[in-house]
Amino acid sequence: MPKLMFANSTSRVMAARPDDVPDDAKDSYRFLANRMLWSMNDGDIAILPGRVSDAWLSYVADLLGLASPPTVLSLRDHPGDGWYPGARPELAEVLRGLMSGGDSAADPWRLESYIHDRDIAGWERLLGIGAEESVRFAQGTAELVNSKSVFRSMATAFGIPVPEGRVVDRGPELVDGVSELLARTGAVIVKQDVNAGGDGNILLTTVEGGKEAGAHYVVHLTATDRATVTSALRPFGLTEVPDLPAGASPARNVIEVYHESVRELSADMSVPRVGAPTLMSYSDLRMAETWKGSVYPPQNLTPRLHAHLGAYMQQVAIAAQQLGYHGPMNIDAIVTASGELLFNEFNGRVGGTTGIDTIGRRLLGQDYLDHHVLASRIAVPAPGSAILTKALKEQGLLFTPGSDHGVIIYNDTTEETGTVEYVVVGRGWEETSQREEQLGRVLNEL
Questions:
Q1: Among 289, 352, 369, 437, which residue carries the largest CB count within 10 Å?
Q2: For the ATP-grasp domain, which residue ranges apply (predicted)?
C-alpha cells in the first residue's frame, strides 16, 4: 500500500499565531519535516515544506535499502500559502498525476502526516483517501491533543500528576496568577497554550544560577509584587487583554510552578482507534533551554519511576483516545529533585523522537531497546552528508546496512543552517557514549 506523506511540520495549528513562534525558532519548524523521510518505502511520495539535499536523500535511501531515493516534493515549488488544499491547486493536480499509475483498487493509497489537522483532512477529501479519517479529523481532533490547556484539564480529571498551575488569559488574570505563584515558589513558567515544544516559554524566577531547562526566555526578578511582574511581562505582550476582531478568541496561556528537574523523560505512544495504546519508545531528554537530543532507553531509571512512568503515560494515551484521537503521540515528564514525577504536555503528532524509533525498528529490529542504546543530538555544526559520511567511514564510525553500531546522520540541514542531527548506536551505554566522544573529535577536525 503506497503512502502519501504530508510532512506538515509548519502546520497552522503548530502555534496559535505565526507571530507566537520566536524568530530564532521559525526555520526549525520546516526542518522537523525531514525526519519523517526515515519512514519512506519504495513507491511512496513525500511533501515537505522545504527542500532536502540530494546527497542526504540518497544516503537515507541506501541505509533503508530502497531501490531509489523516494519522490519528494517541496511546497516551495508549488504556488500557494500554507497546507490548505484549496490554496494549492497546482500541487493537487501534480499529486493526482503521481497517484494515477498502478491499480489503486488492489493497492490503495494511504495518507500519513506530521500532524493530522483540518488541512490534512481536506487533502483526504480532495484526493479520495481515508474518507472516515477525514470526517474524524475535520472536527479539530488533533488540535485538541496539541493543547496544553486541554492536557491540564484532562490530567486533573484523570489524576495524572502535573505541576501546580492554571490556564489563564493574557492580561490581569495572567499577571495576578504569576505574582501569586511566584511569591510562594520563587519560579513560574508561562507557556503558550499551542506552541511546539518549549518555543515561547518564559521562565520568571527569583533564583540566581538555577537550572533553566524548558524555557526559551528567562527573566530574573528581585521582587514578586504585581508591578514588578507586570513590568517583566510587558515586553512579551502578556499584560494587556488583546484587542481582537469581533468573534475572535484570544490565545490562552498556561502558568505553572517551575520545578528544577533532575531528569526529563519522553515517550512515544501509538494510539489505535480501538484497543490498548502501545509504548513505542521512551528516552531521557537532553535539555538546554529546550530539547537538544535524547538517549534511548532512559538510563538507570528506578523500578518505581519506571512503573509510574509507564502507567501514567498509558493513562494519558487512553484519555486522548477517548477524545477521539488516534495516531502518534509523544508525552513529556520531569523528575523533580524530591523524586516526584510530573507530566508537562502531550502532543498528538510526530515528535522529535518518533523518527529515531523508526530508525531503531527498521535498522536494528522491533526489540532494539532490549539490546541497544541510541543517543541523539540536534543542531550540531558539521559539513554536509557527502563529506561527513566519508570522514565517518574512514574512522570506522559510520553505521552501515547490516551493522549494529555506528553513527547515523538523522537530518542534514547544512545548506541552510550548517548543522546536522545525528544518532549514535551502540550495544550499551558505555559503547554509545564512547562512540559519541569519537564523533565529537571527528567533527572538531572537519
A1: 352
A2: 152-377
